[in-house]
UniProtKB/TrEMBL annotation:
This is Acetoin utilization deacetylase AcuC-like enzyme. One of its GO terms (cellular component) is cytoplasm. PANTHER family: HISTONE DEACETYLASE DOMAIN-CONTAINING PROTEIN, HISTONE DEACETYLASE HDAC1-RELATED. One of its GO terms (biological process) is epigenetic regulation of gene expression. Gene3D superfamilies: Histone deacetylase domain. Residues 37-322 form the Histone deacetylase domain. The lineage of its organism: Bacteria, Bacillati, Bacillota, Bacilli, Bacillales. SUPFAM superfamilies: Arginase/deacetylase. It comes from Pseudogracilibacillus auburnensis.
Length: 373
């Protein structure tokens, strides 16, 4: 497979300031590495170069999204706010969405990375693409930035794909540990975009991501929330992919697949409580890649979202990219022993969560079989 790899040095220069976990430092909060720190993504690049896989990829330079493209989703007054903060003092664009000096232009380039990825696969420059986008996007709503996200890269990319290429069936999968609220809102009434969010139940943002939120009007059934209990590991995620995502996708038959790839469901993430291993991310990628190969000529775009373990995110992302390009490096997961504290199996609470989704979504999808008592 020919895999595109998209990034720009500017992504690492987006400055969210100093902080402690996800809060600004000060008072009794001593300055630490702020969670949305460039090191998590910078070290992805470092590992790709160190192991040699970087040179097996088609490196593609992102272009900057235009304001018109950003406004395919975001309201003009919100875009003005981000630009004003970027040009002046910096500040919060909403709810924990920090804008630093020059962040506006970097955010345009981040959204542009997603657009560049779409063009690259649609025009068959590459088979699939991984965009190391920063700042991330999936929490951002039309009028507000949320959770480190300024512009919603994946939403803008999907709307762009619909407009430029006339696509009528786009699938978006968000496996970030936090619910993809911004993406959900963008397409909640749209039957042309099938959205899956696989996330930790009752995490972030508050009061979103419920299994009963299935879309409205013509979009009913095209919004599939899969809230999984804390502690879900590889087996639970793969069961989700094979029992829910794959049968729905086989019925929907997308023309393009976009993934919001947040590596924060990992076992070592400070802002999540899941137990996915690096190999687990590779296996999840294989399921989605196989679906892309079967239904949309391999057209698969992945955009980096969350992931806050500087140590582990690079190894998780490496496994994803290895699977995309079908090349294996000699890199072993150095932390695999630390993620084996409990048997990796589908526990009863995870099965109940999966069955709950199937029961609700089987009203909309013939390929799903409602669980029997």
């Amino acid at each position: 497979m020919k895999t595109g790899y998209i990034y720009d040095e500017s992504y690492f220069w987006h400055d969210t300031g100093s902080g402690t976990l996800y809060l600004p430092s000060g008072g009794y909060l001593e300055t630490d590495v702020f969670s949305e720190h460039p090191l998590t993504k910078k070290r992805v690049n470092n590992l790709l170069e160190r192991c040699g896989l970087m040179w097996e990829l088609e490196r593609i330079r992102p272009r900057m999204a235009t304001r018109e493209q950003i406004e395919l989703f975001h309201l003009p007054e919100y875009v003005d706010k981000v630009k004003h903060l970027s040009d002046t003092t910096g500040g919060d664009a909403g709810d924990h969405a920090i804008v630093g000096k020059g962040s506006y232009e970097i955010a345009l380039l981040s959204a542009g990375g997603a657009l560049t990825a779409v063009d690259s696969v649609m025009n068959k420059v590459v088979d699939n693409a991984y965009a190391l986008t920063r700042p991330p996007g999936h929490h951002a709503e039309a009028d507000i930035g949320i959770g480190f996200c300024l512009f919603n890269n994946v939403v803008i990319a999907a709307k762009y794909a619909k407009e430029k290429y006339g696509l009528k069936k786009i699938m978006i999968l968000d496996w970030d540990v936090h619910h993809g609220n911004g993406t959900e809102k963008a397409f909640y009434h749209d039957p042309e975009v099938l959205f899956f969010s696989v996330h930790q139940d009752l995490s972030f943002p508050p009061d979103t991501g419920y299994v009963t939120h299935v879309g409205e009007g013509a979009g009913s059934g095209y919004n599939v929330n899969i809230p999984l209990p804390p502690g879900t590991g590889d087996a639970g995620y793969l069961k989700t992919f094979t029992s829910i995502i794959r049968p729905i996708v086989e019925e929907f038959k997308p023309e393009l697949i976009i993934v919001s790839a947040g590596q924060d469901p990992s076992a070592f993430d400070p802002l999540g409580r899941m137990l996915v291993s690096a190999n687990g991310f590779g296996k999840m990628t294989k399921v989605i890649k196989d679906l892309a190969n079967k239904y949309c000529e391999g057209k698969l775009v992945m955009c980096h979202e969350g992931g806050y373990s500087n140590a582990y995110v690079p190894f998780c992302t490496l496994r994803i990219i290895e699977e995309l390009c079908e090349k294996t490096t000699d890199v072993e997961d150095p932390f695999s022993a630390g993620s084996n504290g409990y048997p990796d199996k589908v526990y009863s609470n995870q099965r109940e969560a999966i069955d709950s989704v199937i029961e609700i979504q089987s009203k909309y999808w013939n390929n799903l079989k409602a669980p029997t008592c």
